DNA sequence: GCGACAG
DNA sequence: ATCTTGTCGC
């Protein structure tokens, strides 16, 4: 057991600093045929949580596979260390899929992170799959509000380096924060998210995963 | 010392 | 993330 799951903030931060060297920001030659959305829902009182992964056909956005799993938070919520809380359950759900998605769309940031290794980078590196992050709010980095039309965007920078994009996916609707996780570029991640959000603020992948884990937590299976 | 702080 | 009622806009 060379490496157990981190228990302290120091251990978790060290793990991020160690793994971030494996991040690859190169786009894949071929566009993804299937895209997966991942999300987690938490129970009120107890420590239960449900992780869900829903795979959609990238062209039609129709669901082609889905998996859910029950688990426990693997780490307390600490801004910057959020990934350590949900990753075990998410990996569990990914293992239950009957297909291998070409891209993971994570609910949280990727490169736009204090140590440039947010959830999307972490999940991408551990699975080896292309991954990107979509945050509903800002975490870190300098940014400015983009124009008010769908497609308008502005960069998120850290030390002068562009690590992501503030992207408006719908006219006059609050923008989302996009950043690459693994095996994708800032521009590539931004284009993918815009294509995945033709009608609503959040990507269809995120919406599908959100609905799936909430439904499972509510009690039903399907 | 005082804000900011993914989900 | 989750707890919450009504309210505004398409
Ligand atoms: Mg979430």
TrEMBL record:
Presence of keyword Transport: no
Record-annotated site: Interaction with target DNA: 77
Source taxonomy: Bacteria, Bacillati, Actinomycetota, Actinomycetes, Micromonosporales
Binding site for Mg(2+): 39, 107
Domain of life: Bacteria
Short name of one Pfam family: Endonuclease_5
Cofactor: Mg(2+)
Catalytic activity: Endonucleolytic cleavage at apurinic or apyrimidinic sites to products with a 5'-phosphate
Enzyme class (EC, first level): hydrolase
UniProt keyword annotations, A-Z: Cytoplasm, DNA damage, DNA repair, Endonuclease, Hydrolase, Magnesium, Metal-binding, Nuclease
Name this polypeptide is given: Endonuclease V
Enzyme nomenclature, EC number: 3.1.21.7
Annotated family: Belongs to the endonuclease V family.
Location(s), subcellular: Cytoplasm
CDD domains named among the record's database cross-references: Endonuclease_V (cd06559)
Job description of the protein: DNA repair enzyme involved in the repair of deaminated bases. Selectively cleaves double-stranded DNA at the second phosphodiester bond 3' to a deoxyinosine leaving behind the intact lesion on the nicked DNA.
Endpoints of the signal sequence: none
GO molecular function: deoxyribonuclease V activity
